[in-house]
Amino acid sequence: MSQARGRYDFCIGLVLAMSSSIFIGGSFILKKKGLLRLARKGSMRAGQGGHAYLKEWLWWAGLLSMGAGEVANFAAYAFAPATLVTPLGALSVLVSAILSSFFLNEKLNLHGKIGCLLSILGSTVMVIHAPQEEEVETLDEMSNKLRDPGFVVFATVVVIVSLILIVVVGPRHGQTNILVYITICSVIGALSVSCVKGLGIAIKELFAGKPVLKRPLSWILLLSLTVCVSTQINYLNRALDIFNTSIVTPIYYVIFTTSVLTCSAILFKEWQHMAADDIIGTFSGFLTIIVGIFLLHAFKDVNFTLANLPVSLRKDDRAANGSLLSTYDCFNHDEESSTCVSEIQSTESLSARRNGSLSAF
């Protein structure tokens, strides 16, 4: 009976995590559209410390969408382990990429489609190998976990690193280095996930009739979550305003997920109850997702489709044979002569450059 109940909770957590990714992925687009509208109006940008986005309804729509996603994500942590819920955030990257092609005029080429497919496959592998039993089920157990020396050291390091990035590094390099603001969001997000997990357990006990509201731990977790989420929203807005959405989203996903998996390994120790093949499968799925996200965005500006593939292969074959087009072939066909001459000149120019000839310039 307990095993069936655990399976039921696992499925609920899975559905909530997937719906959360859809809402969050859409929120990136709505927020970016709002920030772009403000930039066209000449308002002070969020990346420069401005808060004019608070008057933009599109930004608020994005915030509400993200809020709905976070609520679903919040509930998912109460039913499923963080090792499963967090990596499924990759689906938000797919949603963001697809919607960006429609609303932000960002193209999804062949590399992007392969990246989407790999991300879905990686997520499926992680779902199959994720732990289906959660160790921490009561607030008393959560309290003991939070007092664990390993987690205390981890939380202290996260707070110190975040303060250094906010106070020292951010004002100097935040406008030029994409990793500054995203790292702040990610490492603080690891602590917020821990708070969410604890509050999820508290809510389950509250529905069970236990006096959760009288326990200081519940309010400490709520206060900590509020501070963490506020910090995340602030610095994520800055990153989105300064840098391209297609760059911010995948980097944020990778760093955030890595931080959460590290925090989960230290706090909940879910990995101790997993078989070796499940651990390998989980890491393999996660790496597959990372490769998919890389393909999705690294070659985003390359105009490459299936229709271009045979042409590319033919050009590679001809280049390997030492001759792209012969002079006879070029001038034997009048309608293609201009194209052929252009290709010959391009080839000669490329060869001259490779040989270090200044005449190519």
From TrEMBL:
The chain crosses the membrane at residues 12-30, 57-77, 84-104, 151-172, 178-196, 217-235, 247-268, 280-299. It comes from the Eukaryota. GO terms for cellular component: membrane. InterPro entries: EmrE-like, Mg_trans_NIPA. Keywords: Membrane, Transmembrane, Transmembrane helix. Its main location: membrane. GO terms for molecular function: magnesium ion transmembrane transporter activity. The keyword Transmembrane helix applies. It is a multi-pass membrane protein. It is found in: Membrane. Belongs to the NIPA family. This is NIPA magnesium transporter 2.
